[in-house]
Request: fold
Amino acid sequence: MSHTYQPAGDSPFRSEPTARDQAPQFVLPLVVRIERGAPPARTDALETAARAVLVLLADERAVGDGEWAEAVRDWQDARIRKVVRRARGAEWRRAEALPGITVTGKAAEVRVFPPVPLDGWPKDLARLQVSGTDLDDPEPPVAADPSAPMLWLNPDLDMSAGKAMAQAGHGAQLAWWELSDEERTAWREAGFPLAVRLAARERWQDLTTSGLPVVRDAGFTEIAPGSATVIADHPALR
Reply:
């Protein structure tokens, strides 16, 4: 579940082949807790995954001389990949024992881990299933606060919950990168409020040409390369 982004300059989200494609490739693991008979709502899981990415990026261990900082830098020097796996019961307890951060939404629980090499997953994460993660919203999501950061999903793409969680994480990361230090601090101190919603079809084209950050998928799974999946709409970027 990887993606690209296309701002000016030498960004790891560019769609054109760059030196980042030849660099050692890393992935950010995310694990969603899905207990049998008690799955989280889809939108709750998407929003929790997006916040989990932000929580890791803002964590003191991920910056400067922190213990995760080198892994985060190596990951951001290559393609920015995220993979969502699912766990329950003993699988979840083993995942929680590994270094990482668990972020909780309304009911969803997502644990994010420092980046690992593509072929170097910890065995307790590598054995978790990645495909087939699907969730539903028992009721339509309530209208989002228009002043809150929004991650708009492409209404014309059919993505599994796992895929959409990764894409929401990408969108949150793009917004984070575009903000000033003061804006990042304010967002972090507020607890990273955000909402993930399916864009109305009549608005999607306007969003993609608005100048807001656009996630374009690399096409490794589920959807065609270059597909716009998420628009990151933070108030400070409007």
Notes: Residues 1-14 have pLDDT under 50 and may be disordered. Strands lie at 3-4, 26-33, 81-87, 101-104, 109-112, 116-117, 150-153, 195-198, 214-217, 228-233.
